[in-house]
Amino acid sequence: xxxxxxxxxxxxxxxxxxxxxxxxxxxxxxxxxxxxxxxxxxxxxxxxxxxxxxxxxxxxxxxxxxxxxxxxxxxxxxxxxxxxxxxxxxxxxxxxxxxxxxxxxxxxxxxxxxxxxxxxxxxxxxxxxxxxxxxx
Length: 136
Description:
By secondary structure, the chain is of the alpha/beta class. It has a domain at 45-134: Barwin-like endoglucanases. It has helices at residues 2-17, 114-120; strands spanning 42-50, 71-73, 82-87, 93-100, 108-113, 127-134. A 6-stranded mixed barrel has the order 1-5-2-4-3-6. A hairpin with a 5-residue loop joins β3 and β4. The chain is elongated.
């Protein structure tokens, strides 16, 4: 009986050591989000798109990626920034919201969702020369 008591005490201590600490105060450092910090961003380069393979995965902003939404990934623009992406080959353009980080392929400046790629007429090619401009 005494041996069982010792085992139970040791097991209780082991479980207590596995618990996570209680959260403290909410994160309070930094300034509230302001999409105007994107300023007058304008760049030209190559765009690619991502779709089915990433559909439903979490983005860097924490939301789930929806290939049917008008969203995009950019390396530095703040999450929530609205940008106009124009396909320089055909003149088609679309407004997307930045909600992820990327692209990670060399030479690309933006990754757009499948829906945005469809609007830009770049589904067949997969990559297109584009202009990206922040909106106010």
